[in-house]
Amino acid sequence: MEAKREAPEEAGPGRLSIRSSFTERSRPAGNASGQIVKSNYMCTAEAHILFRIVGSGRHSSFCSSCVQTVALLEPHTHAQCALNYPMQNTTGSGDAIFLAVAGFLASEIKHLLVPNPVSQGLEVSRSAYAYVPSIHHQCRPESTGKPLARNLQVHESRGSVPKGFSLDGPAPDEELLSLRMALVQNDMNGLLATLEDISMPSSPNYGQHLSKAEVEQFVAPSSQTIDTVNAWFTENNINATTINSAGDWLAFSMLVGQANNLFGANFSIFTHNASGKKITRTLSYSIPSYLKGHVELVHPTVTFVVPPAKSSVTAQRIGSTGVRRRSTDAEPSACEEQVDPACLQTLYGIPTTPATQSSNLIGVTGYGEEWANEADLAQFLQEFRPDVSENSTFPVYTIDGGINDQDPGWAGFEANLDTQYTAGIATGVPIEFLSVGSDITDGVFGFWDSANFFLTQDEPPTVITTSYGTDEDDVGLAVAYNLCNTYAQLSALGTTVLFSSGDGGVTGTQTDDSCTYFEPSFPATCPYVTSVGATTGANPETAAYFSSGGFSNYWGVPSFQSSAVSGYLSDLGDTNAGLYNASGRGFPDVSAQGINFVFIADTESWNVNGTSCSSPTFAAVVALLNDRLLAAGKSTLGWLNPLLYSTAASALNDITTGDNPGCGTNGFPATTGWDPVTGLGTPNFDALLSALGV
Q1: Which terminus of the chain has a smaller tally of CB atoms within 10 A, N or C?
Q2: Where would you say this protein principally sits, based on its record (predicted)?
């Protein structure tokens, strides 16, 4: 949908003229003698008043900021505007003819209209207007030279400047903002209910994933929403473009001054203290009341994140002498020294035989201009998987200015790690890499843009792994919900969406001395993604101390998880009481090894720790399970969580020792069953295959 401005139609008896608040409002109006005078009246209610200077035949917008393009709709279509009334005229030289729409009583007009002091000689004739009763209306003179926001309602707000940011001052009125608007989707609740139905192993519809067209039918906005929002853009002379195939997201640009006016906002410059990066945001914004129910959010406004997103990888060069090549029959204890594909295959029972299903695909994402190097992957496979082909080519897609520079000296650590372990473990499963650059306008690191990229593909990956995230409260609630529901759309298509849980323990990005509460990670807390924590060691595995986990402040406990969470909290008792949301969605869901991984970058070997290691490892397991399912004529796994917390719970290796300290506490302890450090545990391939009935 592209919001296009139509040329205004000349007003006449029984007609309304729709005019832009920003391009028409300063047009001079003729007085009774045809002379030019200024008539700047401002409105604070939703009605459009026109007057025609009969002597000159001119038409001008009066109270032009009150233009409602819903005037073009049928009578009573909009609750606040009954606009299709016949207009009664009284003509005569020197009379201004006022067409008062949805507005004010005849006896009140002289009290409600206040001429601009610079408009000398403009008389208001009480007999020269059309009378349409019912809705209170008020006009007042303008003194600022800018349209005033009218009948706005606060849509999103923050109580204070978020932690880690400081306020510099107001943003210049001339600064250009790139904004997006999410429209209310037609039936998102219906999509989520359908997703739950097709993802519950006990449902007769289990595994019956939706088509792209079926998903879009749920999320596309209604025609009424499109018309109403399109009219608002036209009214304000703003060009908007649809940026996804479902049509529920629009992109547009405007100056700060205009945005402050239209949205009743105070866009300001904020500095991210740690990085020094500056962003323009507001602590609150409003929308016209008639857009409520049509507009879900305007963005970026109250979301405070600074690209690139935080990757959960830390690497140390170890050189070629520190690398120990293993045979594929390595003992699990080998993982104590160094983690490579062979030790993971042995530890988790992952098969080494090549996959056979060409429709099975792993998507790996990289942010902050990260890309994966094919030469490094070839070297990695030669050293650690000499039993497979060294054909290391894979498609690299770029969005938001992403990079695919195959110079090995510039490849990203995170990108190389993720591609090397998905390709090195999921033998024969093709991978694709999505490089997200720094030209980001989605306000959430490119997370939304990357999700939308996969949604537009005819055949999206069957599993997507992402090793990036942020603190949950960095992201506005409405934005978090919308992005989470976007991952639900991918899940409905049959894609498993994995995110690393983060490396901040219970602290998140806070420092211990400033920490007053446990900080959950996002998108790991989204119920429609599977969050992966980290473990270390073997015989037994134990929780990695940095593995982020806890409870969401945005989402309540989902039904699939309620038993697991309530059982854990019952055993936990009063420990950490008041530091976390005991009624929130718990994360992570599962875990995998996350310490002492070896990978190749610029021909050298590096040692790396983090849940960045864990997510691609689990993604490789999911991909191989999908391969077996497809070969058996079944569908891919899609949204994993309902399966994991039911029939597959016993197919995971339960991790019962370790914790994730922070904020001056020991954090949460790992224990029997689910816990907010390692989730339900680490993969056992054969047991998972059996739970799937393959």
Answers
A1: C
A2: secreted
